[in-house]
Design brief:
InterPro entries: DNA_bp_PD1, PPC_dom. GO terms for molecular function: DNA binding. By secondary structure, the protein is mostly beta strands. It has a single domain, classed as Hypothetical protein, similar to alpha- acetolactate decarboxylase, domain 2 (60s Ribosomal Protein L30, Chain: A), CATH 3.30.1330. It is built from one helix and nine strands, in the order ββαβββββββ. The protein has one helix at about 20-30; strands at about 1-5, 10-15, 35-55, 60-65, 70-80, 95-105, 110-130, 135-140, 145-150. Strands 1, 2, 3, 4, 5, 6, 7, 8 and 9 form a nine-stranded mixed sheet that branches. It is flat, with a radius of gyration of 15 Å.
Amino acid sequence: MKVKKLRTHYIIRLDSGEEIVKTLTEFAQAKKIKSAFLLGLGAAKELTLGFYDLEKKAYIRRFFPTELEITNLVGNIAWLEEAKQSVHQAKRDEPILHIHIVLSSSNFNTIGGHLFSGTVTATCEILIMVLDAKLKRSRDSATGLNLLTI
């Protein structure tokens, strides 16, 4: 990973072989990022995406082993307000990265969803826009999700 720090932003280049969500979570924790929004592009393989089934209150997961182009990656960084079970599998003292991604295949078909994991192939270029307020998430009983507390 290569990092350039700007006043309130970070420009990050993830390198081949790095796991996107794990690496960004560790980065947010190490830099003590209160909260942020992020966006990016690049290429990845071994991706696990999810679609949230509101009726079942659970993610439908699908694995994509082959290399795909990241045409859009967008998300945010927040923290759990309470130590209840999280659909994001985060503990109370860990940042939660909520990332959605759109991917394109070599035949130009696109797929998208919630990003659980993915391994960078060529590169993944990320802009993290740090906020000065700490965003928090708490469990919403109606959806089963940890929604932003606003």
